[in-house]
Protein: Uridylate kinase
Organism: Aureliella helgolandensis
Amino acid sequence: MEEASETTPRYRRVILKLSGESLCRPGERGISMEEVGVIASQIVQAHALGCQIGVVVGGGNILRGAQFTSTSGSKIEEATAHYMGMLATVINAMALQAGLESLGCNTRVMSAIKMDGVCEQFIRRRAIRHMEKGRIVVLAAGTGSPFVTTDTAAAQRALELGADIVLKATRVDGVYSEDPEKNPHAVLYRELDYETVIGQNLRVMDGTAISQCREHGMPVLVFNFKKDGNIVKAVSGGRVGTRIVARVEGGSFPKT
């Protein structure tokens, strides 16, 4: 992947996918406004380059729908549990909005589930207009439908909003051949193609999200958001993380 200046964005518009766990301290749950402030600062720096940014946020730091479907005793229907998870993403989106606005950045939260007293409803053309006006759009409630992950929501929103790439923020440096915590010799791939990710069952995003990106040629960049400046590098086209594209020339996947 070619190097690029970190003073100008390589991508005109991006969708940044954040897990709910990115908003809390490692090993904890809930929301840490200190952690929110750190990631908000990185997003604002990337936005200041001129890149239009939409953020899809998960809700796993508050709850996951699956946790209510495998307990003994009284059970919650699976679809209901998924809706509860969607509401958790709205809470996270509001916290992220507060962090962004505390840094002077104009922000809009748009939810796939209508809740007028809290935030705007997601409307594609309105979301695009917000970004064109220089606002960061935080996209909550997934797709608004149960049985769909927020990874798939990120892929869907990227396609709907005409984004150039999906930026998948994680706590590791990219996609490895094996778990680097278990095997210190695991290889970090700089580029992969969709077929390799699916064929080797590399857990980058859920299968539906990767398949959707492959079908429409939407590239994905998996990178470590915990390293300061990596979001700026990601939108600038710098050497960071693992880029997943339609085809890797030569079929080789170089390590760092």
User: Anything to note?
Assistant: The first strand starts at residue 13 and ends at 18. The chain has one domain: 13-176+218-240. Residues 78-101 form the longest helix (24 residues).
